[in-house]
Structure formats: structure tokens, C-alpha cells
Amino acid sequence: MISMKSPPTVYIIILNWNGWKDTIECLESVFRLNYDNYRVIVCDNDSSDGSLDKIKAWADGRLDVFVPLNNRLRHLSYPPVVKKIPYQEYNRIEAEAGGDSIDADCSLILIQTGDNLGFAGGNNVGLRYALARNDFEFVWLLNNDTVVEFHALSALVEKAEAYKVADAKVGLIGAKLMYYDQPEVIQAVGGVYNKWFGTTKHVGSFEQDNGQYDTDEVTNKIDYPIGASMFVAKHILLDIGLMCEDYFLYFEEIDWVFRAKKNVWHIGYCWATKVYHKEGRSIGSNSKSKSELSEYYALKNRIVFTKKTHPQYLWSVRTFFLVVLFNRIRRRQFGRLGLVLNIVLDRSLQHNRTHS
Question: For 10-282, which CATH class?
Fold first, then answer.
């Protein structure tokens, strides 16, 4: 018997900061999704490159994405989808109040957050907009430097519904992340956290995708889904709240999952959803090297997260910074020694000031 129930409403939240070209390519792939009931929210963290104007020009049909002919993923974002795409623009205050009823027919919501709020802060503005409207069942947090296959959202919803039928309390579902420049190579199916050293590791990274992770057993091998693609149920937002904004960059998803697990929520994994990720482009990093901004928050937040969740391991996390210093010397990254030492000696990290 065919169910006449309408598909659940999904909000897709995409955070942009000085990355309109990537965002437009991402949007081209998102607006090809074969799912019937979704709206897209782009939160702009006060970009200085005119990002929102560029995105509006794209939605109006005045600007197209450029994808090289030899790009193996070109078919996911080219030729351009039919324009005009109706949109509504809000500032942060308007958005967090739920916007206006007139935007119900707009498939694209543009929000200027007014400041660089970081990953958690920027996404949280979009989440507050969705919660204020209270007309959705799921949100999909998706990095702007990604492209997705046309069935990606359908697969996520089907997976979430399957968990529900199985009476599994799953609140966050990860995807199979693939390298954008090497579409057959896995970036990660999830991550693991080492509480002794405060370090994280991607599971499956740099492996050829031969279906070895196409199983529900993956959730037994990972501690958290990667933040580049997180499918989140509204119920978990109402239960544990939004992402913690103390981190600015990195560890937000780990913190979120840790809080969820304390409330007996589980993580899920949808291997049928492949997300092709350019990895770190918006913060000047890639798979081979990290920008100084990226490294600063990656190292600092080891301590912030440990102090908040595993304070008994703080001594070993701090001790491991000696290894970090040695590696910077070995790699002749002498300019970054001060960065590491400043984190170790930062008085603000001597006391736990974090909060959920």
C-alpha cells in the first residue's frame, strides 16, 4: 500500500564566509535534489567579498557557476538549474524571530548574521530561524565547499525513517564524505576521538571506496559524524539545544554528539549519501596542510573540549603538546612555535569557562 503522507520538511543550512563561488556551485547541486520538500538557508558570516550580492545574482539568473569541462563532478552542478529562484533576505534579528510569513513560497532564505560567528554561531542562526518557524522535521547542515548527488537528501530521509521504524533513538546522521578532487577516494565516514591526547582522526581517510564502509556497523567504529554533512532531527535540537559556540572552529560536532550521547541519543550513518568535499578551502587549508587559523583553533579546542568533558585527562592532553612542538621543529615550521606556546600558556585556558 502506497502511503499518501507528504515527505518530511527539511531545511538545508549552508554557512558562507567569503566563499560565494563554492557556495554557488554547492547550491547548483542542492537545487537538483530529487526530494520534494526542502528549503535552503544560506547564512553569511559577514563576508567581505560581496558574497550575498553574488548569491542573489545567481538566484536571479544573472550569474552562473563556472565548472571546468574536465571536472569529473561537473554533472552535479552544470548546466545551471532553471532560474529565477525565489529568495527572501533577512538580518540576524529578523531571522531568529522566524522571518516573515511571506517567505513561505521562497525556496531560498538568505541570512546576514552581521559578524563572523564561526561555524557553530553561523549555523545556529539558521537553526534558530528553523526552530522559530517550527515547520520542519530535519535539518541538514552542509558545508558550502561541497557538492552532492541528486539522491543524497532522499537517502538521508529514508535512513532517518528506517531508524525511526526500528525504534532507534538516532538524532544525528553522517554521510560518506569523498574528496572533491578525487571522487573515488574517501575523506571520512566519521571520526574517532582520543581522550588521552585530545586528538581526532578520520575513519576511512584516503581509502579507495570499494563499498567497505557500506554497512550500519560503521557506527560502532566512529565517535561522531563529520561536520561537513550532518543530518539532524528536530527532536534532538529541542532536547539538547544548539551547537556550543565556545569553539568558533572545530570540535563543535564532537561536543554536540557528546551532549547527545549523555541524553541517550545515538549517531547514524548513511553510506548512500555521498558528499564531495573540497576540505578546508574556506579557511585556507587542505588535506596536506593547515592554515595558521585552522591550526590555532584545532589545537586550542583540544584543551577547551577536554576541560569541559574529560578534565581528568587534561594532564595528558597538555603533555602531548610537547609532541606538537617537536613536530613543528621537525617540519621546520618555526613560525608556528609561538602559536603553540601561546595556547599552552594562555591563562584563559587555565580555568574552565565553557558552557553549553
Answer: alpha beta
